Every structure is written in C-alpha cells, then in structure tokens.
Amino acid sequence: PKAIQLADYQAPAYEVTDTHLKFELNDGYTQVHSVLTLKQVGDGNELVLNGQDLELLSIRLDGNELTTDDYVLGDETLTLSGLGASHTLEISTQIYPEKNTALEGLYRSGGMYCTQCEAEGFRRITYYPDRPDVMSVFTTEIIADAEQFPVLLSNGNPVSEKTEDGKKHVVWHDPHKKPAYLFALVAGDLQVRDDHFTTCSGREVLLRIFVEPQNVDKTEYALDALKRSMRWDEEVYGREYDLDIFMIVAVDDFNMGAMENKGLNIFNSSCVLANPATATDAAYQRIEAIVAHEYFHNWSGNRVTCRDWFQLSLKEGFTVFRDACFSADMNSSTVKRIEDASMLRTVQFAEDGGPMAHPVQPDSYIEISNFYTVTIYEKGAEIVRMLHKILGAEGFRKGSDLYFERHDGQAVTINDFVQAMEDANGVDLSQFRLWYKQSGTPVVEVLTQYDHAAERLTINLRQSTPDTPGQTNKKPLWIPVQLGFIAHSGEDIEVRPDQPDFWTEESQVLHFREAEQTFSFGGVIEEPVVSLFRDFSAPVRINYQHSQSALRFMLQHDSDGFNRWDAGQQLMLHWIELAEKGRFKLVKEDIAALHSVISDESLDPAMVAYLLALPSEAYIAETRKSYDPVAIHNGREQVLSEVAEALIEDFKACYERLNVPAEYQPAPADMARRSLKNLALSYWARASSDGIEAAKAQFKSADNMTDQMAALRVLVTCADQAEAQEALNAFYEQWKHDSLVVNQWLTVQCGSSRLGSPDHIEKMLEHEAFDWRNPNKVRSVIGAFANQALCHFHSENGRGYRLLADAVIRLNASNPQIASRLLTPLTRWKRLVPSQSHLMKAELQRIMDSGSLSKDVYEVVSKSLV
Ligand code: BAL
Ligand code: ZN
Hints:
CATH superfamily of the domain at 4-272: tricorn interacting facor f3 domain
Helix content: 40-55%
Largest sheet: 8 strands, mixed
Bound molecules: beta-alanine, zinc ion
Distance between the termini: 16 Å
Oligomer: single chain
CATH architecture of the domain at 4-272: Sandwich
CATH class of the domain at 4-272: Mainly Beta
Shape: globular
Strand order of the largest sheet: 6-5-9-3-2-12-15-14
Number of strands: 34
Radius of gyration: 28 Å
CATH topology of the domain at 4-272: Immunoglobulin-like
C-alpha cells in the first residue's frame, strides 16, 4: 500500500453543490441512487469519485447513460474526464449492509441500519468525491419496510413522510453544506425520548434520543448533558445551535465512541446509555464528556471543517480541549486535569516514543483510520490549551471568534486556526507552530540554585526533543512553564522574574523558548520549593530531582492540585522502584504524609482518592527506558500491601465514614464520596478479612453499579479465588440480560492481574456473552487483557502475545479498524526486557506473514517492525 502525502494535496476541480440521495433498504441488499450537481471550481476537467466494495448499476451524465468507455473504473475510484463547467451526474449502486462487518459505511447492527462515514466510509455507500474539502447540501430520501423500520433518520430537518404499499418513505434536508464524512442514516424500530432547548436567541430546538425499546430508561442523563453542553457553548464560545432538531441514536456495534454527524449524532451505546443500576460513575462522566464533545463538533468540525485528513487535529484537538474545559466546569477542574494529564503521560507519551510516533499534523499516512490517535486528539488538545495559557482566556476567545467568523462554511487547515489566534491577538506564533510539526515528547532538564545572601533564585532550563521515525534535529519549542514558589509555611510566595518579557502574570507562566535559558528571580527571602509545570502546563517530560522530603511537603501543601498529586506519584514511583530491588520499607514520614491526606476532610474526596492511588503499571513502565512488566507488577503489589497495612485504621475509618445510605445521584459531590469510599475499601480489603467482608456486603446490597462494580473488583483482586469466582457468577446471573453490564463483567476479569490468564481469556472467547462482531466485546476481553492484565499478557512463554496476534489476524479480515487498534501493545516491543522483546517481535512478524493484510494492520505492523 502507498502512503498519502500532505505535500501532494491538490484542491478539487469540481464541487458538488447539491447531493440528492435515495436509499432503498431491502432485505439482504440496499440500492443507493445519487444525483450530484457538479460545478467546476478548480484547475482541470477531471472528476475523481471514490468507491469501495460497490456494485455499480448505472451512471448518467446530464441525462445520458454512460458506458464503460466513458469513464475509468479503478480499484477504488471512478474517473470522468473532459468535463465542462457544470453537470448533473446520476449514479446507482448496490451494497450489502448485512455483510458489512467492518462497520464502515452503511451496516446492520442488530435489527437496525446505521452508518459510520468518517473518515472514508461514505465511499462504501456510493461513488462520491469522498474528501472533506468537498462540501455539499444534502437531501436524503429513505424507503424501507414500514413495519420493521418505522424510524428513518438522516441529517438536517424532516421534510416529508408517507407510507405506501407497506413501505415508508421519508425525506430529510440538511441546509448546511457538509462533507460526506458527516452524512448519517439510521433505520430501525426505535423508541424516542424527547426534550427541548431554547437557544440564546430564543429558538426552540427539539432534542431526541433514539434507542432500542429496552433502553428508554437509560437516556435521561445524556439528554441532560446535552442541554448543559448547548448552554455552555453559548456562554463560553458564543456558539448557538443551528437546526430545529438535534438527534442522538445509540448503536451497539460501533468502532468508535461516537460520531458527530450533522444533526444526527450516532453513539456507541456504551457512551450514551446510563441508569444508576447499570452504569458506574466513570461511565456517567464519560457520557457527559462524549455528549459534549460530539455536540461541540457542530461548530469545531462541522460548520468549520478540515481541508484534508492531515488537519484532523484541527477539529479533534480543539474539540477535546473544549470538552475538557466543559467537564472541568461541571465537575472538579483539578481532578479532570489529573485524569487527562495522567492519560496523556501514560498513553500518548508511549505512542510518541514508539514506532507509530507522528506529529499532531502528520505529513503522511497509509490508512487514515490509524491516525485517530491520542496524539491527534489529546496532544492536539494540549497544544490548544498552551495557546489558551499563552493568550489568556480573553485573547483566546478573540481568536476563536475570529476563526469561526472567518471560516464558517469552509474546510480549512490547522494553520488557519493558528493564524486566527495570531491575527486576533497581534502575536507572532511562528515558533509555536512547531508543536504541530514535530513529533516526540520534549524533555526539559531543570536546575535550580538559591543564593541566600542575594535572596535570588535562578532556574536553568534546557529542552530537547528525541528523534522519532522520519524526524531528527528538532528545534526548540515555545514551552509555557506555569510556576509557583512555596515557602516553608506552605504558602505561595510571589514569583517575579528579572526577565518580564518572558513572564505572563495572569497565568503565572514563564515562556521558555530557546534550547537553554536561565531565569532569575530577586527578592526571594527564603529558599522555596519550586513547583514547576503547574496544571501540567506543557506536554513534556520533566527531569528535576525533588528530594523525598520536598515531595512529601508538596503532597501536603502545593496549592496547585495537579502538582500536589504529581508529587505523590513521584514519591510512589520511587517506592515501587525500591520494592523491585527488594529495598522498600514505608518510613514514618511517608505514613504521616499519607495519613495527613486521608484525614483531611477539607479536601475534595475525589482528589484524596487520586492522591492515595498508586501510579498504574502502564505509567510506571512509561517512566522507564526499558522495563520488565512482571517486576513492575510485583513491586507495585508490595507497595500497595504495605500502604494498606500501615494505614489500615485510616482506610477502615474512611470507608465507614463515607459508606452512608444515600439515594444514588450522578452528581459531582456524590461521585467524589463514592470514589474515596471505594478506594478505601480496596486498601482495607487488601489488609484484612473484615475489609473483604465489607466488600461482600457492599456487593450484595449495592443499589448502584458504581458500588457493586467496585466491590466486585475488590473481591476479584483480594478475595480467595473461589469467592472471587462466586461473586463473578452471581453478577453474571443478575446481569446477563444487559449487554453493557456484561461488558463490564468481562473487563473486570479479563483485565485482572489475578484472573486474566491466557487460559481464562480463551475461555471467555468461547463464552455465550462474547461476540467477535461486536467491538465492545472484543475490547472488553482482548483489549482489557493486553492493556491491563499486564503480568499475564507478558507471560514468559509468550502465550499472551500469541493470543493477541491470533485475534488481530482474525479481525484483520472482518474489522480492520479494530484489528489495528488492538495491535498497539505489540508495537512496544523495543522497550521490553530482551527475553520478552523477541517473543513480541516474532508475533508481529507472524501477523506480517499471515497473508493479505488490510491497509490498517499493514501500516502498524510494518512500521513497528522497522
Ligand atoms: N470524529 C470521530 C469521533 C469524534 O472524535 O468525535
Ligand atoms: Zn471528535
């Protein structure tokens, strides 16, 4: 397969001003008739249409039927040459949604039809210029059996509806120009929950969530989150919704989390359905964030879209930043920041240091589906966040206003976004643009020196970015360093650099812009603890050795919640390293620091839960140049047990204090209480049989999934094997009718470092609840195993790797996107200890040799083997 290059971008010769689609959904096959109004807008008289797995029935140009002499039909294109200024092109194709297991284009999920067109799914529906810079006004007619498919949906507003001879016909019209990737169609026997929203200018919008009948009682929270998102986007960005109707549909078989199709968002049911009995607090928070994310795309993605797929982060990075700020406003902003930064440091740093490392604006790809990555999304969001820090809230808003005003209705580039920020604020962001072009995680080395006599502190900063595939000799970046000085009293003292040009008072940010810079600060009357990169102000690795006592001090006193948490993480990383060397003993100062955190009732309980949680095995691995996953697991387990034993009375008391009867509410304060309660339970149960009994009691009596699942996880982790299995069996009996709950049940065991052995995984692949066609099931079993049950996945005999490779080979044929995503853990082979590394590489090679690979899998495997 050939790589596509950003440098080869050419504007289209023709635009499609209007697109009329007619879908006839029949049992076993679907016919699609399109009428495209073409207008020449660029150089050339050639029109290239994309098409994949289509049966071409007929093609007419300006009413005349064309023969095979009139066009060139390639493997994945249909080309017409010698065209004039304007034409009408009519095409009929036949497709087979029932056989579509890739879940791209039009497919069947259970009893319904649905679509997924981003990035290049529309070409599996009909021949079309399937590229985001071709924006068209769509009218869609759907014809289907009235009894089986009473609900027929597409983008925009409904125009007409009738039933004739047992067939239902509906027409939808979307007045807003859009690229084909935002097209959507749904047909099914669905129930709807309705609500209304009055926009800031007083327009009434009908809000509708369509679900299968058994799920109507799981729609309230998403609707509520939608209304909050709509209001927030008006208040924070001045963005109003622009159609009379906004629809969400829940679908069980879905490759992604959700999709922002204009006016008709389609969601993976796991990212939208919730009620207290079946969804955990984490699921509620995920739903709130994803509903907001998809809604925010209406402006950042749909009204202003991407010129080409190299610009994917234009909409994704910006929209992730927007949804993160929304979630921060709805909940605890510090906790949200900890969660996001922790994920970035674990997953994105690993990607950025591996064979698939790519810039936030890549310059080439083989399969664009492989680039829906944490780099494009989360690192992209961090870049937007840095702009926000550099420009300030007001300056950033001026920039976003200009961006939306200037580019509404256009398909644009990342550079257009930065240009709007630049023009609105009169700043030069040329150097800042490098963040989009250079891959790899920058490393910042920090040296501090305090001169007591001169009352002066100096900070020396040096930056470098490691080589990554295809990139060497990187230039210095503009790195915002949010900074604080903490006095012995625990209070912050004023930060006043001698170089005011490099300092923004509003955000307390130092602008670090050269390979090496030294900043000095006068009037510092005592040696402070230096709190660097507060709020995780830049996505970099920091090399700065705080002493153990400084870390304990920060854990108790840093006014910046993120750094307070991070200080604890650094302490714990050190403990785990010592434990791996057989030299760990929790000292009384550590116990005192943890005790002061757990007993501080003035703190947000959700924050306390994070402060007391050890770094994940995946993050620990990410901090090492080379790692032994089993040693990490054992070291971490030892530290967990010592902490549990040392603070057993604290954990017990904390659990008992917070385990109060209360009606379940998915509200921030209640979620925070449950998170600390369940963390305390997990430590208590590790250290005592009373804790296990408390978990059993909670498992039996819980009236909400957060508490029930937390108790089950504790039993799976700490109870003896028979008791753990008994709880799992009881849980399955209780919930086997609910597929989303069953997924959680699969995850808790397949991701368990106790139960998730290769034998167990193979058993679960044969279980009645498992289904290879459903991506959520695959993720719950194989994804959980390979990403969470690390000591089993990395078993010495290589069986874990073999199991994953077998799954990838199997899915390569049916669902390449999922196959390629599952592969990620195997791409890390170079960082593992040699004994594991060569076993992993051998499995990658076996995949490579296994026969006809999809572009998706080929790209990841071939780049990983280099
Ligand atoms: N655009 C694909 C799904 C999402 O990022 O919203
Ligand atoms: Zn998105």
